[in-house]
Design a protein that fits this description.
about 0% strand; single chain; 5 helices; about 160 residues; about 80% helix
């Protein structure tokens, strides 16, 4: 197998693999903070806040962006449409596909991870402020989301056609 084709095929897996790692790290950060806040709320006899689950779910979107990149842009050209037969583009642009996969994957990884760390801080702030400021927390997490979107869109624009 041609090295260029192999690099392109690795890009297909890396984009989704890196993004899912970031989503898992982000969800884990919010989840740990939520568990602590729910423990505090349960001990105080107050209802457990559902808003923490909303915050925990936000880092999932980066995995969706990576899946779209993998499925729409990378997979048809790198894997090929006929039983794994690579197309001409994958032989010519394997390095480009690898770079797109790694670049988009890393953008999603760090965007989701940092979104989760912001979400973890948001859980603590919401817990201590009796739920005040939820909209501001969502906006801050949305700013981090924008980095993942930029990584997706800008690399989508450089994909060979």
């Amino acid at each position: 197998m041609d090295a260029s084709i192999m690099m392109g095929q690795m890009g297909v897996g890396l984009v989704l693999g890196l993004a899912t790692i970031g989503s898992a790290l982000g969800i884990g950060a919010v989840g740990r903070a939520a568990a602590g806040a729910w423990t505090k709320e349960a001990k105080a006899g107050i209802p457990l806040k559902f808003t923490y689950i909303i915050l925990a779910g936000m880092p999932l979107s980066q995995t969706i962006y990576a899946f779209v990149m993998m499925f729409i842009v990378l997979q048809p050209e790198v894997i090929g449409s006929d039983a794994g037969v690579p197309t001409d583009l994958s032989g010519i642009h394997g390095g480009t596909y690898f770079g797109i996969g790694v670049g988009c994957g890393l953008a999603q990884l760090f965007s989701a991870w940092m979104q989760g760390t912001i979400g973890a801080s948001a859980v603590r702030a919401l817990s201590e402020a009796e739920g005040k400021g939820f909209a501001n927390m969502i906006i801050m997490m949305g700013v981090c989301e924008t980095v993942g979107l930029f990584g997706f869109v800008f690399l989508l624009l450089v994909a060979p056609s």
